[in-house]
Amino acid sequence: MRKVYPAIGLLLVLLILWVTNVEAQQSSSLKKEPKTKLESFQAQTGTVIIKGYSDIGRISALGSIEVTAMEFTDASTGKKQKGIVIEIKESGRFENSDRSFIDYDEIESLLKGIAYISKATTDVTSLSFFEATYKTKGNFKVTTFNSRTGKISAAVSSGYIRPASAFISLQQLSELRRIIAQAKQKLDSLK
User: Fold this and answer.
1) pTM for this prediction
2) How far is Cα 135 from Cα 185, in angstroms, rounded to an integer?
3) Given this model, what pLDDT does residue 60 score?
4) Whole-angstrom Cα distance, residue 102 to residue 110?
5) Residue 154 and which of 26, 54, 75, 91 are 20 to 30 A apart at CA?
6) Which residues of the chain have pLDDT under 70?
7) CATH class for the region spanning 37-188
8) 71-103 burial, b for 16+ CB within 10 Å, e for fewer?
């Protein structure tokens, strides 16, 4: 019987090493690669990056949505990159939050996408329920959908692994579109 205990101890050590290795592989595979020019620009190393930003607007509902206009400048080259950041904070017990970067050249198509899905009704499909979704490179997603009661609502989410979500009315979706348009105007006014 005494010879069994060292074998169990060795087995436990091997199991712990295996689990540690699996966890390390999983955490390294979860590292987020830059999907936008803004993310790539701010991830630079070995140079001074200046970040300028203006808070443009906020919507509160079942969660909150904040829109910020941003401009990054590489101090050594003068090269600039601009766009917006949309941060979503969930309400509730866990208060998850995440943010998405949206490059300047993607803002116009986002505005058009929101305008289109805002007008979606049950006649977009011959089935009972619909979802109309627009998604950016930075994983900001806007969806309109109908419920069993027939009411059309909207949801926004941000994030890769465990996205943060907020549920808003169609009127608030229209307000979000207006705020994003204001952020674009702010960026257009920059030198």
Assistant:
1) 0.81
2) 21
3) 92
4) 9
5) 54
6) 1-32, 93-94
7) alpha beta
8) bbbeeeeeeebbbbbbbbbbeeeeebebbbbbb
